[in-house]
Amino acid sequence: MALLTLPLDATGLDAAIIDLDGTMVDTLGDFVEVLRRMLADVALPPVAAAEVERMVGKGTEHLIASVLHHLLAPAHPELAERQAVVEALFPRAWASYQHHYPAVNGQFSRVYPGVLEGLEALHALHWPLACLTNKPTAFAVALLQAKKLDRFFTHVFGGDAFAQKKPDPLPLRKTCEALRTAPARTLVVGDSSNDAQAARAAGCPVLLVTYGYNHGQPVRQVDADGWIESLAALR
Ligand SMILES: O=C(O)COP(=O)(O)O
Ligand SMILES: [Mg+2]
């Protein structure tokens, strides 16, 4: 695919679906802070940003469970026993996370360089644009509004919008339906293997940014159609 060697309007593509965390907004600081508040509520110590970075991207349930497993591992080295402790703690942790997130959302995060330029370039082509994230929809909408990026998107779908989350292809298929575009003509831009696997399975071409969160793995080893150092490369 000559995605990165042709001008975008000569690629045969006519729409785009863009990921949020790690692609448009560096939200690691938000996650670290909301987890710090949540963990204090359940009498656990905070978790380091480098650990959180490896755990972000598969939605809220996965993030909370991963953090609890990580922190409880020294005291409960046996997996089955730890699982039971995590399950018992989970409802309180979940409720605390939901309680704290709105106040934290966008306060400890920033839009990556080049994002505005890239979105403006797609907007100038009159491509319909959707934001598809594993973050809950309400938090995603509020974050895009706080960062003044909401005006670019006709649709915003979060991890709770469909029956499956990325890396399942269902959210991409459903988002293409909402945009009324064909997957093969819809560019996916993301930062992780979740985005790339979902795009491959849905039949969408996919570009990955090189600066986001990819579960601690090198992003250039992920099967994708290309890598960009900034969304400004879409100009
Ligand atoms: O897992 C999350 O909450 C965020 O994931 P995203 O990279 O799909 O925006
Ligand atoms: Mg992401």
Automatic annotation (TrEMBL):
The active site is at D19. Gene3D superfamilies: HAD superfamily/HAD-like, Putative phosphatase, domain 2. Mg(2+) binds at D19, D21, D191. Keywords: Calvin cycle, Carbohydrate metabolism, Hydrolase, Magnesium, Metal-binding. Its cofactor is Mg(2+). GO terms for biological process: DNA repair; glycolate biosynthetic process; reductive pentose-phosphate cycle. GO terms for molecular function: metal ion binding; phosphoglycolate phosphatase activity. It is an enzyme of class 3 (hydrolase). InterPro entries: HAD-like_hydrolase_sf (IPR050155), HAD-like_sf (IPR036412), HAD-SF_hydro_IA (IPR006439), HAD_2 (IPR041492), HAD_sf (IPR023214), PGP-like_dom2 (IPR023198), PGPase_prok (IPR037512). Pfam families: HAD_2 (PF13419). Signal peptide: none annotated. Its EC number is 3.1.3.18. Specifically catalyzes the dephosphorylation of 2-phosphoglycolate. Is involved in the dissimilation of the intracellular 2-phosphoglycolate formed during the DNA repair of 3'-phosphoglycolate ends, a major class of DNA lesions induced by oxidative stress. Homotrimer. This is Phosphoglycolate phosphatase.
